[in-house]
Amino acid sequence: xxxxxxxxxxxxxxxxxxxxxxxxxxxxxxxxxxxxxxxxxxxxxxxxxxxxxxxxxxxxxxxxxxxxxxxxxxxxxxxxxxxxxxxxxxxxxxxxxxxxxxxxxxxxxxxxxxxxxxxxxxxxxxxxxxxxxxxxxxxxxxxxxxxxxxxxxxxxxxxxxxxxxxxxxxxxxxxxxxxxxxxxxxxxxxxxxxxxxxxxxxxxxxxxxxxxxxxxxxxxxxxxxxxxxxxxxxxxxxxxxxxxxxxxxxxxxxxxxxxxxxxxxxxxx
Length: 269
Hints:
Layout: E1 5-8, H1 15-21, H2 28-40, E2 43-48, E3 52-54, E4 57-59, E5 61-62, E6 66-73, E7 76-83, H3 93-103, E8 111-114, E9 118-122, E10 127-128, H4 129-135, H5 141-162, E11 176-178, E12 184-186, H6 200-210, H7 213-222, H8 227-239, H9 243-252
Antiparallel strand pairs: 1-2, 2-6, 3-4, 5-6, 6-7, 7-9, 8-9, 10-11, 11-12
């Protein structure tokens, strides 16, 4: 991975950086407007670094809606999501509202500010779940993984209870970050919605225990979950989305006796 490059705000007019702020095409007038937005957000500089590439410049993330980079403000180091000029939406306000709702449930990176073209969020530093699980070794590995998995499921339960569907949890290799305190953090609410049937718990269970590469790694580290029993528990949960049916899922997954739930609000019993 290339070393990070810290670029002050006054240098972002250069074309090579402008192509990132106006990805995927450079537009001088659009860049001028966006630089005014960044100044209004209190951005002093941006840091180009990460495992993804955009026009040969490293970034934290790249998707259909935006590019994610690091920004430095008076609040410190934050994550900055930049709306692509060819995105399927005219602004970032809807995603900001979804993240704001998630924050109210102790889920997701903290929303700091938003404009038409930018989303300013807490920078969540950590390791993506599959890599975190695979890297664990030695005594306590199984209990650490189970505590994290319980924390993930509890967050998904809170989203379900509130009627907020994340939308990307059935394929979530990049949507769960484990921080240095073993706290799982769900990220990227760009496709979240309150207008469709929620499927956070069922989607994340399919990803963690049934049909993904992560499920194979988890099985190797903590043991096998009875697939048939889990599928039946998930079907029951779809029909009767209650805490009781959720607890049955926890039991089938071997997580009902876990004594810590990651971070955030403790579950009701």
